[in-house]
Specification:
Radius of gyration: 23 Å
Number of helices: 4
Helix content: 40-55%
Structural class: mainly alpha
Shape: extended
Order of helices and strands: HHHH
Distance between the termini: 54 Å
C-alpha cells in the first residue's frame, strides 16, 4: 500500500497545489441512498464519549530519561503512560494540599 504524502512534505505541497477545490454544489450525491428513519435511530456518535469531566489538553516538557521511566512503569502496570502521569500528579497534589 502506497503511503499518503504528508501535506507538510515537499511532495505533499506539490500534490495539494494540483488539487482544485470543488464546492458541494458540484458534487454528485445521486449514488448515495437516503438514510431511513430506522437507519438514523441506529446511528451512534463516533469518538470519545462526553463524560462531563473532560480533561484539559496541556503541553509539558519532560526529560527523555524521565519519560522513558514513566512509560516503563505504565507498561508494567498495564496502563497508558499519560494515565499514570495523571494519577501520580493527582496523588502528589492531594498530599501537598
Amino acid at each position: 500500500m502506497k503511503k499518503k504524502p504528508s501535506a507538510s512534505s515537499a511532495q505533499g505541497r506539490r500534490v495539494r497545489k494540483n488539487v482544485r477545490h470543488m464546492p458541494d454544489s458540484k458534487i454528485d450525491f445521486s449514488d448515495i441512498p437516503e438514510a431511513t428513519d430506522e437507519d438514523l435511530k441506529r446511528m451512534r456518535r463516533v469518538g470519545r464519549p462526553s463524560s462531563g469531566m473532560a480533561k484539559q489538553l496541556i503541553a509539558i516538557r519532560l526529560s527523555p530519561k524521565l519519560l522513558s521511566q514513566l512509560r516503563k512503569m505504565a507498561d508494567a502496570q498495564g496502563k497508558p503512560y499519560q494515565s499514570l502521569i495523571h494519577e501520580l500528579l493527582e496523588k502528589a497534589a492531594s498530599r501537598a494540599a
